[in-house]
Amino acid sequence: MKSELDKQDLRLLDLLQRHGRISSQDLSEKANMSSATCWRRVRALEEADVIQGYSAILDRQSIGLAVCAFAHVSIDRQYSRVVGNIAEKIRRRPEVLECYATTGDADFTLRVVTTDMDAYDRFLNEFLFKLDGIGQVRSSIALREIKQTTQLPLG
User: Fold this and answer.
1) Neighbour-count burial of 85, counting CB atoms closer than 10 A to its CB (0-12 exposed, 13-18 middle, 19+ buried)
2) Is the pLDDT of residue 2 over 80?
3) What is the largest CA-CA distance in the chain?
4) Strand order in the sheet with 96-101
5) CA-CA distance, 131 to 119, in Å (whole number)?
6) What confidence score (pLDDT) does residue 82 get?
7) Which helix (H) or strand (E) holds 113?
8) Per-residue pLDDT tens for 3-30?
9) Which of 10, 23, 45, 98 is positioned for an S-S bond with 111, CB 3.0–4.6 A?
10) CA count, 13 A, side-chain hemisphere, 12
11) Could you tell me which of 98, 48, 108 has the C-alpha nearest to residue 78?
12) Quick check: 115 and 65 in contact, CB under 8 A?
């Protein structure tokens, strides 16, 4: 769908990223289009999975998730069955907010949030280290957040 996006679509997406709770009326006014046209465009973007959902962005520390760690995971064997099994189990873990297959020293990089270091230690020992095929895990603990956003650069 990327090639089909025009300037109006990009404007709508930018507004929705910045103001997720904006009313349909305000959205159409800010995008300089009729309410009906705005609604049809947003609906088409949702149906094409350009807009995959809507959510509230929470302050993790305010709800007791004090630790943010990056786990750099290396896999012993690069068999597709092993990699697929590891990926599926990681997808199911609620404390894993993001997981990327990466190049370099690690095969996967995970962003993990937990209440404290003891909880992160339990995540490692009771889950990650027990997965078949895991070779090595290196952790980096975030000391403070400098930038965190969900807004994609639509420039």
Assistant:
1) middle
2) no
3) 56
4) 96-101, 108-114, 67-75, 134-141
5) 18
6) 87
7) strand 108-114
8) 589 999 999 999 999 999 999 999 999 9
9) 98
10) 25
11) 108
12) yes
